[in-house]
């Protein structure tokens, strides 16, 4: 059975696309790694209230084949269709979906910049803390410092405060006045301004101190975080000597914005572009087509820009797959993209952040590789990029495959992060790989037949 | 209708979880922040990214090692144990 | 005015690094240039197999035996991060037919100086307790070893004291009026030297072309699977299966090997590699992954429940007769080659470096280099086949 369209990711972009395409009569399969639709932004507990935007869209999911808990680990061409190979459910069962067109709406994950003590229990991703609170009604503590950079921090602090946490400080490395330079983009987005003001207001009621051009430069504790050091930053994000002070807390929620999740797209050979905050994103045309015919992309995968932009792009992509277009959607997309670019530029990490690291700071959490070893590989062993640092230190070779340390390692190696390449987008049991369906011919020439030669390998 | 809480164990200790909570959320709710030690340094780790990206929250659940606690839904009677090293040791 | 080195080595992979190391040790002053970082090409995609077991008696095996000895010496010089492990290889035969063929193969190797010991089914289980039951037997090759290739290249370069210039691309080979080499042109300027060594592996044909000679190096893609970290001792040797495969095409039969399965000091088990002639195609082949996983789980059923967390590929440089090109190129005085090692470049690097250094100094080679002559491929009209 072949779907007209397979949508990967059930966040705002994927949901909007699936609903729109199904509404045009297409046979749509929607795959998502999570148990429940909504993506990271609309996390919700299983039996709790479903967020309104999700409710509105999921009501219309009738006619869409929704496959939750399906993690697509690769998409490969098979003749004139696509095969999406998945690891499904808690038992990691194999599943394969065949489709004529594919929309990648794989979203984003949080950018982390390491600092001493960031591996202590109680230091959590800001987006993760919010997701756990929304989805699991759980907080790892009561006194939460929120730190990093980006508009998400305001939302996180607000959510935490509303759930009863005390947020003594919101520490933002950038300067919000940087937005002023991009005022035209803001003025065209009155909704965004109102949202910002709302966050500010509710925070004030909860007595949170907003510190811009500051950063948490260290977390302290033995078995868990007990306090953080907050220091003022110069324009390059270097800590200003003598400005550090200790803030007691039992949780630090930290993140430096979001970065697009790209590996399915790069695995297919889709071209990428560099966004104003220095991270790569999938390049698409005005109708969300990637450089690979038959593959569309929408939402954060194409550059982080929020739920409204993601929904808009999802609709545009679905219309295009169905052979249609909308001028109004295109105008909305252009307006929201301009705003997203302004935000990205304002929160782009400045090079001085690497001064937060001492040589003993672990940069790669999985393989426990320190900043000192990364610097040695760069300065002494001829590593010019994150890939070579990985080969020479194992930074990025562990379970997360560099998703957490990749941005930091690239910058320590002196480059902007390269587009992610991970042929397996999640761990796959070897028994599943060994029993992959022997489908029809794949892209490119068939693997060569056994050659009559001496046994050998690498 | 209020969903009924259920119980699971962590290293033999009985915890209460709510339907829909992940293993990590159930552990956090019980004040537990670490359920793994690292392979080299033996350092304590728990949930970090909270969305399945970082694999810091790997736990052994019902004897199966290297499960992402932040994604895995808690089920009544689950047995969660602190995971050491590769999870396959011993 | 910058000083003039005795030789410029193009390529900062493991072969270029070994050339630099042995040339420096012979008293030469060398520069190493690479358009990318150290170990950025096939070296970085290698598994670090230092094997004699997979080579039939002949010139490549002689090169491998010399290399195995040299790697053992180098292990004392290089830091422990290079993860040199003289762990030995284990080649298993699924049935009696394969075992009989393997016996003949090993006997010829033994004549050439390889240590190979037959292991019956019980002995196999002693050597590798997690092996699948029901295997007919196999051979233990204690000389087989393993190294972390990128680290090996980086530390060989460091130990050489060479002027290492990563991120600099060679755009031309400079020659004098008589046609002899006098240096290279790079993206950063000219670098003069009386000798140039082409150690650019899969890209060796292009450098040869810049120098005006024909060297038909072609890419052969290989995928490697990497598992989640596993406890030490799960897989103790470099293990692969040899099968006796009837070759329908020419009515004969040949030994065909499976992917090599091996543990690493860092924990993951490596499974590699496939062999495909698909040019520089970088798209994932699920057929390749299926074959690797099927072969590995057939040898070690315990791996079935283990997860692959990574797959990567590299492009092995191969020449039509599957032997490398090593030594001076008689067509262009001053031009030397050290490339085309197919899937054995890590293993063969030290011997290659030693031979290249001898050629640069005009010294006697440690073994017969005639089979590796770079001008052995007659130029053909049209694009290289």
TrEMBL record, chain A:
<feature type="compositionally biased region" description="Pro residues">
    <location>
        <begin position="447"/>
        <end position="458"/>
    </location>
</feature>
<dbReference type="InterPro" id="IPR036188">
    <property type="entry name" value="FAD/NAD-bd_sf"/>
</dbReference>
<feature type="region of interest" description="Disordered">
    <location>
        <begin position="415"/>
        <end position="458"/>
    </location>
</feature>
<feature type="domain" description="BFD-like [2Fe-2S]-binding">
    <location>
        <begin position="363"/>
        <end position="412"/>
    </location>
</feature>
<keyword id="KW-0560">Oxidoreductase</keyword>
<dbReference type="InterPro" id="IPR051691">
    <property type="entry name" value="Metab_Enz_Cyan_OpOx_G3PDH"/>
</dbReference>
<dbReference type="Pfam" id="PF07992">
    <property type="entry name" value="Pyr_redox_2"/>
</dbReference>
<protein>
    <submittedName>
        <fullName>FAD-dependent oxidoreductase</fullName>
    </submittedName>
</protein>
<feature type="compositionally biased region" description="Low complexity">
    <location>
        <begin position="437"/>
        <end position="446"/>
    </location>
</feature>
<dbReference type="InterPro" id="IPR017224">
    <property type="entry name" value="Opine_Oxase_asu/HCN_bsu"/>
</dbReference>
<dbReference type="InterPro" id="IPR007419">
    <property type="entry name" value="BFD-like_2Fe2S-bd_dom"/>
</dbReference>
<dbReference type="Pfam" id="PF04324">
    <property type="entry name" value="Fer2_BFD"/>
</dbReference>
<feature type="domain" description="FAD/NAD(P)-binding">
    <location>
        <begin position="4"/>
        <end position="304"/>
    </location>
</feature>
<dbReference type="InterPro" id="IPR041854">
    <property type="entry name" value="BFD-like_2Fe2S-bd_dom_sf"/>
</dbReference>
<dbReference type="InterPro" id="IPR023753">
    <property type="entry name" value="FAD/NAD-binding_dom"/>
</dbReference>
From TrEMBL, chain B:
<protein>
    <submittedName>
        <fullName>(2Fe-2S)-binding protein</fullName>
    </submittedName>
</protein>
<keyword id="KW-0560">Oxidoreductase</keyword>
<dbReference type="InterPro" id="IPR036010">
    <property type="entry name" value="2Fe-2S_ferredoxin-like_sf"/>
</dbReference>
<dbReference type="Pfam" id="PF13510">
    <property type="entry name" value="Fer2_4"/>
</dbReference>
<dbReference type="InterPro" id="IPR042204">
    <property type="entry name" value="2Fe-2S-bd_N"/>
</dbReference>
Automatic annotation (TrEMBL), chain C:
<dbReference type="Pfam" id="PF01266">
    <property type="entry name" value="DAO"/>
</dbReference>
<keyword id="KW-0560">Oxidoreductase</keyword>
<dbReference type="GO" id="GO:0016491">
    <property type="term" value="F:oxidoreductase activity"/>
</dbReference>
<feature type="domain" description="FAD dependent oxidoreductase">
    <location>
        <begin position="6"/>
        <end position="358"/>
    </location>
</feature>
<protein>
    <submittedName>
        <fullName>FAD-dependent oxidoreductase</fullName>
        <ecNumber>1.-.-.-</ecNumber>
    </submittedName>
</protein>
<dbReference type="InterPro" id="IPR006076">
    <property type="entry name" value="FAD-dep_OxRdtase"/>
</dbReference>
<dbReference type="InterPro" id="IPR036188">
    <property type="entry name" value="FAD/NAD-bd_sf"/>
</dbReference>
């Amino acid at each position: 059975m072949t779907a007209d369209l397979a949508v990967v990711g059930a966040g705002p972009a994927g949901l909007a696309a699936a609903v729109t395409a199904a509404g045009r009569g297409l046979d749509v399969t929607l795959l998502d790694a999570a148990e429940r639709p909504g993506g990271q932004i609309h996390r919700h507990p299983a039996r709790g209230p479903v967020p309104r935007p999700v409710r509105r869209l999921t009501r219309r999911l009738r006619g869409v084949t929704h496959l939750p808990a399906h993690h697509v680990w690769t998409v490969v061409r098979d003749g004139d269709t696509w095969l999406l190979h998945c690891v499904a459910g808690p038992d990691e069962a194999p599943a394969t979906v065949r489709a004529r067109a594919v929309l990648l709406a794989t979203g984003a994950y949080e950018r982390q910049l390491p600092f001493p003590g960031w591996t202590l229990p109680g230091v959590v991703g800001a987006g993760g803390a919010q997701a756990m609170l929304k989805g699991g009604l759980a907080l790892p503590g009561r006194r939460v410092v929120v730190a990093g950079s980006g508009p998400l921090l305001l939302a996180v602090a607000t959510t935490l405060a509303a759930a009863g946490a005390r947020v003594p400080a919101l520490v933002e490395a950038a300067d919000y006045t940087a937005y002023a330079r991009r005022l035209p983009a803001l003025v065209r987005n009155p909704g965004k301004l109102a949202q910002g003001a709302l966050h500010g207001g509710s925070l004030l009621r909860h007595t949170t101190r907003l510190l811009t051009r500051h950063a948490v430069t260290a977390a302290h504790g033995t078995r868990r975080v007990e306090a953080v050091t907050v220091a003022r930053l110069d324009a390059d994000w270097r800590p200003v000597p003598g400005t550090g002070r200790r803030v007691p807390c039992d949780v630090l929620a930290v993140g430096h914005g979001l970065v697009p999740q790209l590996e399915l797209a790069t695995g297919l050979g889709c071209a990428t572009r560099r966004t104003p905050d220095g991270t790569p994103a999938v390049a698409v045309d005005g109708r969300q087509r990637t450089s690979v015919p038959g593959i569309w992309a929408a939402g954060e995968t194409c550059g982080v820009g929020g739920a409204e932009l993601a929904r808009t792009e999802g609709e545009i992509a679905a219309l295009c797959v169905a052979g249609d277009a909308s001028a109004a959607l295109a105008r909305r997309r252009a307006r929201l993209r301009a705003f997203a670019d302004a935000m990205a530029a304002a929160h782009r990490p400045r090079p001085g952040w690497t001064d937060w690291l001492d040589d003993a700071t672990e940069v790669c959490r999985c393989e426990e590789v320190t900043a000192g070893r990364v610097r040695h590989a760069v300065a002494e062993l001829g590593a010019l990029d994150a890939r070579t640092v990985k080969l020479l230190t194992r930074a990025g070779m562990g379970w997360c495959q560099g998703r957490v340390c990749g941005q930091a390692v690239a910058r320590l190696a002196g480059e902007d992060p390269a587009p992610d390449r991970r042929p397996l987008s999640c761990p796959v049991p070897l028994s599943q790989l060994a029993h992959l369906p022997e489908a029809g011919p794949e892209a490119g020439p068939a693997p060569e037949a056994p050659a009559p030669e001496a046994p050998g390998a690498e | 209708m209020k969903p009924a809480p259920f119980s699971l164990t962590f290293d033999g200790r009985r915890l209460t979880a709510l339907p829909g909570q992940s293993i990590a959320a159930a552990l956090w709710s019980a004040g537990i922040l670490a359920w793994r030690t690292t392979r080299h340094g033996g350092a304590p780790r728990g949930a970090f990214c909270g969305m399945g990206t970082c694999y810091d929250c790997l736990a052994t659940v019902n004897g199966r090692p290297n499960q992402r606690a932040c994604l895995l839904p808690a089920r009544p009677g689950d047995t969660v144990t602190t995971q050491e090293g590769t999870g396959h040791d011993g | 005015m910058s000083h003039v080195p005795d030789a410029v080595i193009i390529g900062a992979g493991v072969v270029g690094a070994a050339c630099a190391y042995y040339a420096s040790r012979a008293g030469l002053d060398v520069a190493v240039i690479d358009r990318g970082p150290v170990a950025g090409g096939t070296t970085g995609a290698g598994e670090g197999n230092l094997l004699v077991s997979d080579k039939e008696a002949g010139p490549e095996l002689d090169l491998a035996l010399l290399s195995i000895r040299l790697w053992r010496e180098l292990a004392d010089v290089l830091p422990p991060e290079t993860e040199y492990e003289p762990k030995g290889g284990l080649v298993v035969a699924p049935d009696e037919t394969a075992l009989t063929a393997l016996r003949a193969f090993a006997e010829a190797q033994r004549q050439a100086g390889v240590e190979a010991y037959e292991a019956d089914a019980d002995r196999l289980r002693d050597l590798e307790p997690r092996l699948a039951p029901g295997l007919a037997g196999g051979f233990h090759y204690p000389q087989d070893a393993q190294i972390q290739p990128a680290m090996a290249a980086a530390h060989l370069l460091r130990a050489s004291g060479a002027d290492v210039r990563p991120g600099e691309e060679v755009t031309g080979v400079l020659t004098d009026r008589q046609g002899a080499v006098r240096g290279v042109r790079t993206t950063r300027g000219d670098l003069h030297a009386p000798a140039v060594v082409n150690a650019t592996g899969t890209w060796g044909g292009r450098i040869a072309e810049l120098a005006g000679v024909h060297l038909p190096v072609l890419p052969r893609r290989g995928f490697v699977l990497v598992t989640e970290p596993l406890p030490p001792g799960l897989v103790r040797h470099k293990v692969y299966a040899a099968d006796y495969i009837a070759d329908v095409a020419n009515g004969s039969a040949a030994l065909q090997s499976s992917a090599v399965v091996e543990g690493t000091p860092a924990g993951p088990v490596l499974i590699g590699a496939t062999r495909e002639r698909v040019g520089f195609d970088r798209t994932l082949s699920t057929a390749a992954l299926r074959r690797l996983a099927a072969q590995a789980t057939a040898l070690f059923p315990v791996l079935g429940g283990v997860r692959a967390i990574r797959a990567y590929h590299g492009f092995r440089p191969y020449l039509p007769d599957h032997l490398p090109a090593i030594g001076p190129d008689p067509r262009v005085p001053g031009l030397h080659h050290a490339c085309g090692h197919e899937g054995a470049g890590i293993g063969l690097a030290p011997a290659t470096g030693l031979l290249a250094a001898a050629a640069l100094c005009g010294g006697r080679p440690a073994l017969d280099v005639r089979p590796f002559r770079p001008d052995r491929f007659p130029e053909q009209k049209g694009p290289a086949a």
